Amino acid sequence: MTGAFQIALDFQSLGLRPELFTLPAFSIGDLRLGPFALRWYSLAYISGILLGWVYLRRLLREPQPPMSVEQADDFVTWATLGIIAGGRLGYVLFYNFQNYAAHPFEIFKLWDGGMSFHGGAIGMALAILWFAARNRINALRVGDYVACVVPIGQCFGRLANFVNGELYGRVTGSDWGIIFPGTNGLPRHPSQLYEAFGEGVVLLMILAFLFWRTDARLRPGLLSGVFIGGFGIVRFVIEFFREPDTQIGYLAFHLTMGQLLCLPMIVIGAVMILTSGGRRVAASA
Asked: Strand, helix or coil at 283?
């Protein structure tokens, strides 16, 4: 076929690697250590948490915050644990249970990858509930502020997925797209970039507008509902361009696992938005 794939991009031509750099192995006496690699995926998690923390501290400087800056500093530790534990267990339960049931110790091999946003969201929600109860503060309001910063980490995570050449999209059906390694050589949608833009940039801008330009932060549950429902809608749509997980494939109604997990998010988000008006916090004089 003359001219086929003439505008398709070979992923390998980008020169991207999963590791930012690698320290070679070395020995201390009889003890051999390494090699150690700093991966883009790990850096994405670290950067997302740190930048999210900085942005959260800035949000808390506005009048009537749900917690103090000092409490937010303490919360970051619990949020990190919730994200990592929830994300990993979510991946195990939702996407690859049979494999991990047969090899349970592989659950702890976080360096091999395998994280679920939906599981991480559940872990974060549990961390918020525990933290709010411990400090006797409004969990919904804490969740609203946290929701405003989560898209930062989500954006970085999806960019790292692209650098790793993983979680790529479906075949485009035309002569444009990206040819990812380990596939059938056909151009595919760079769905990781779609998700970075939709789940990251778009949601961040919407939530920032609502926080800074409206009274949404004084309506507990509104910003959380916008994030949860908005993420569910964006992810559900983008899943039509993303290749399903090979170990699962398509499920009911030809939907993916990611899409089925987004349906309750859309419902929960809508309920939180519609009921937020009755929980309004009185503005300070």
From this structure: coil
